[in-house]
Amino acid sequence: DGTEFPDAATYTAYQQTGGKLNKGDWRRSNVNTLIKTMYTRMHAIRPKVKFGISPFGIWKNGVPAGITGLSSYDSLYCDTQMWLEQGLIDYMTPQLYWQIDPPAQSYPVLLNWWIQQSKKGRHVYPGNAVYRILPTGLNWPVSEIVRQVNITRSMRDRLALGNVFYSVKQIIQNVKGIQTELATLYKQKAKVPKMNWL
User: Fold this and answer.
1) Which pLDDT score, from 0 to 100, does residue 1 have?
2) Position 158 in a domain
3) What pLDDT is stored for residue 3 in this prediction?
């Protein structure tokens, strides 16, 4: 609704105690500290628990080249690329809620970019927008989701190890026969991918 996040007083207090970061960097630093602390403390208590995040699918406008849209880094103050690159999470599910073909938010281009950021070998399970098949919405054909799953599978050797569908509601309701289509793609029970660093 355009309301500014209510952190003006806290930021002023930070500056008054010698803080030098601009407000955007300060916000990102706070979020980064939260993520690092959660990851470290959680694994100290339960070492085998998997910690993942599902961020907005575009890190920065223009990254990779040709991608445009809301910037997670600049608008949401989340350096999601850094979390993946530094291994501060066990898996990432970027919300890649766009089609394959439009170049401004291309599903395979974005997925490929996210995989490249996983310098520590963390898994990437892209989020797919099943809700967009609704006739009252964008009315995507079911074949779009099937193609996206196949693209993800083609990157399996690069740590794209599955898909996360939003929302399961459309699958349960079998909108446009998607449940049937997915049943042909998923004939066997999936095994949870091993995370050798845990």
Assistant:
1) 66
2) yes
3) 85
